[in-house]
Specification:
The chain is mainly alpha-helical. It is built from 17 helices and 2 strands. Strands 1-2 form a two-stranded antiparallel ribbon. The radius of gyration is 22 Å and the shape is globular. The two termini are 15 Å apart.
Length: 527
């Protein structure tokens, strides 16, 4: 298809949409994903042990046989972002030379970060550095790169580099590839805001048929499971914080009540749309997170933590080749249980975060988009992990961290805050932060799923969005209660595996699209 851009034909896409119960849907995408989603919910309710065993088997098989593929995919997607940003293609403005951004840089970045991985950083920001530090001191396959037995300084450096590796650059590159593809083909080629659009340079009009339907169904399922995993983490940690602070027993009933309350708030946010819902909540969360970060920095060894920031970045970049090596690993416990799981989780999130990134990025240059979607969130993530991770490790090294090492992942943040001044207040703020991230993730994810199942439409009825709000929340609830994090993580990994192939294909389609725009900077209106 050497001249694919000269004869763009949307075929019958959109004409297959149906008005069903007052809702506008693409039946070939809506019904399969709705059926599978509710089938998972019913199966998990009827046979919780069997469903938990099934998901555990799916996770084990995917990790055992395809760990190298997950890691290699992440490496290639990061390389794609770097090459495109540094090339002349980086100067292309999404939407054309006259396109103007809809949001200020602060609002834009706040929404990017809030929809991306804010809730995950809060959950793992203390627990992962502590886990890797203790593993590195002990050595063995669970220790990153074999660990540093008996050497606390080396173990700290290794633990922080490994933690940063799981949260910086690679995951954001996975999101950015998807967002860039959707933005290019929607804003510059007037194609639907849909995953299938990026494959038009490869398959032509076939993307508007069954081929494209299959891509969309897989993307929606991956989004549902990836989002459900994050909601499960958020609910678990928020409930753990409430239990830790107020002695409210954690039970299926209390977790269900918490999620239902957050569902009601999410519903109100969805009614408000992006401008009156997600944007406002994202900006509030950004400032709350910043305030908590400053508090930890000010009450800890301020200058030491700031010095650790530069040291951690240096160590991370130095160990990046070894940590991203996909084959011949001896640290299989760390590699499979942390990095490979994260890569699958990030990939399963890519349609959701990428589509949301695209919707709010009109008028940004490609280079600005990649910088805002990859570099800045990575730096903020490194700052967060350094402050919370190094503060926690410092307590352990000083002999005051026994409670931290014994605590579960979902309570370690509150144990850290409990050792600092104003613990009751800061822990309350932390719970609020988790819950706001909870709402913004659920809200933006629901809007994206609704768009993908409605043939790219963004003007659907509230009742239609509510269906997906319930579906995502339902899967998160039943998997959390029936199989815990194992089932949630397994669902994300199972759907992330085939989706990785789709993201690699999107790189090729996006490159073809950008090359056309580069050759025709003044004639894109005829494309």
């Amino acid at each position: 298809m050497a001249a694919w851009d000269k004869m763009i034909d949307l075929g019958n896409y959109g004409q297959s949409n149906r008005n069903w119960g007052g809702m506008h849907i693409n039946p070939a995408v809506f019904f399969p994903t709705a059926f599978i989603s509710f089938a998972v919910i019913m199966f998990s309710l009827i046979a919780p042990k069997a469903s938990a065993d099934l998901f555990a088997a799916l996770r084990g098989g995917a990790v055992q046989h395809f760990d190298w593929f997950f890691m290699m995919s992440g490496n290639l997607l990061l390389l794609f972002c770097v090459v495109v940003a540094l090339s002349p293609l980086g100067k292309i403005r999404l939407g054309g030379k006259g396109a103007v951004p809809d949001y200020s840089r602060l609002s834009w970045f706040a929404m990017l970060f809030g929809a991306g991985m804010g809730i995950g950083l809060v959950f793992y920001g203390v627990g992962e550095p502590v886990t890797h530090f203790t593993s590195s001191l002990a050595g063995g396959p669970a220790a990153p790169l074999g660990g540093a037995v008996g050497n606390a300084d080396a173990a700290r450096s290794l633990a922080m580099a490994a933690t940063i590796f799981d949260w910086a650059l690679h995951p954001w590159a996975i999101f950015a590839v998807t967002g860039l593809a959707l933005a290019v083909f929607n804003f510059d080629f007037n194609m639907p805001l849909s995953m299938r659009s990026a494959f038009y340079p490869l398959f032509g009009k076939a993307v508007w048929g069954r081929t494209g339907d299959a891509i969309e169904v897989l993307a929606v399922l991956a989004t549902i499971f990836g989002l459900a995993t994050s909601l499960g983490l958020g609910a678990q940690q928020a409930m753990a914080g409430i239990t830790y602070l107020y002695d409210v027993a954690s039970s299926p009933l209390t977790i269900l009540t918490l999620i239902l309350v957050m569902a009601a708030i999410t519903f109100l946010s969805i009614r408000g749309g992006i401008d009156r819902g997600i944007r406002i909540l994202s900006e509030v969360n950004m400032w709350v997170a910043f305030a908590l970060l400053v508090f930890i920095l000010a009450t800890g060894s301020t200058f030491q933590l700031l010095g650790d920031l530069a040291t951690n970045i240096y160590n991370y970049l130095g160990l990046l080749p070894a940590l991203s090596n996909p084959v011949g690993r001896t640290d299989t416990g760390f590699y499979n249980d942390w990095s490979v799981y994260y890569w699958a989780w990030w990939i399963s999130w890519a349609p959701f975060v990428g589509m949301f990134m695209a919707r709010i990025s009109l008028g940004r240059t490609v280079r600005e988009f990649i910088a805002g979607a990859v570099i800045l969130p990575s730096l903020l993530g490194i700052l967060w992990l350094t402050i919370f991770g190094d503060a926690s490790i410092a307590q352990i090294v000083a002999g005051n961290g026994a409670d931290l090492t014994k605590a579960s992942l979902d309570t370690q943040l509150f144990v850290l805050l409990g050792a600092l001044p104003w613990a009751q207040f800061t822990s309350f703020v932390a719970i609020g932060l988790i819950l706001i991230f909870f709402v913004t993730g659920w809200d933006s994810g629901t809007l994206v799923i609704d768009t993908m199942t409605a043939g790219g439409r963004t003007d659907t009825l509230l009742r239609q969005k509510t269906i997906w709000l319930v579906a995502v929340g339902g899967i998160g609830i039943v998997l959390l209660l029936s199989g815990g994090l194992t089932s949630l993580q397994a669902g994300a990994i199972a759907t992330g595996l085939p989706l990785a192939l789709i993201l690699l294909g999107m790189c090729i389609g996006t490159l073809k699209g950008l090359l056309v725009l580069h050759r025709n900077p003044d004639g894109r209106e005829q494309l």
